[in-house]
Amino acid sequence: MEDLANTIYSYCNIVTVNAVVKIYDVSIYGNYSQAYCYYTYLITYCGYYESDSGYKYYNLQRIGNSWKLY
After folding, report:
1. Label partner for 1 (CA 20 to 30 A): which of 17, 29, 39, 69?
2. 26, 34 Cβ separation under 8 angstroms
3. Distance, CA of 38 to CA of 56 (rounded, Å)
């Protein structure tokens, strides 16, 4: 989604991104984890829009006391 927003911004200087992620389940395997989520986003620009939604697994890694997407 970040690449899409950057590409659109190069043509239209006003880009709005609305995104929501709902986490349904998290499994932890030591320093790694997998989260099952539902996502939805809407990107508006120059009178146009792009949107998508669906279920997806996200992989995370523990770095210190935080979890980061990888």
Report:
1. 29
2. yes
3. 6
User: What domains can you pick out in the chain, each with its CATH number?
Assistant: 2-69 (3.10.450.50)
CA atoms within 13 A on the CB side of 6: 3
Are 58 and 35 in contact, with CB atoms under 8 Å apart? yes
Helices assigned H by DSSP within 1-70: 2-11
In order of 15, 22, 68, the CA distances from 57 in angstroms are: 27, 11, 14
Rounded Cα gap, residues 31 and 2, in angstroms: 26
What pTM, to 2 d.p., does this model score? 0.70
> 14: which 2 tokens?
């006003």
